[in-house]
Design goal:
Layout: E1 2-5, H1 23-27, E2 32-39, E3 42-50, H2 59-62, E4 73-81, H3 86-100, E5 105-108, E6 110-111, H4 114-122, E7 126-130, E8 134-138
Parallel strand pairs: 4-5
Antiparallel strand pairs: 1-2, 2-3, 3-4, 6-8, 7-8
Length: about 140
Amino acid sequence: MLVQLLEPDPILRDDPVRPNISPKRRIEGKNRGVYAWVEDKQICAIVCISQPESIPKTERELFVTGWIQPSCLVVLYSVWSYKPGCGSKLVNALVKKIRSLGWFRIVTMSPQTEMARRFHLKNGAKLLQTNKTTVNYEY
């Protein structure tokens, strides 16, 4: 089941992709959020999102604020799983939810790893662009 985390849970410190981003920073602000995939009352996977005004290439660009209009862009910037297959369940459920809300662009800011590439392509994303230190995939 897809669940939004509304408090800066200590489990967010487990992030193997972007461990330097604090749990508080992931949650606070209108353009940020964290979702979990929960099975049998256990968190099985986590995804962190941001709504910047443009496609980010760096962590700094994830948290740009000051824009007036809500963005129609949602960026998945960190995904990790505690149980095989749950990361895919989480991303697919979140993409479905985002689309149902009318946001038309869903992009990742992923590390340049083979694991990230396989994960996103397997789940239906397309390679959008390769940056100096990250890769953007689009769902």
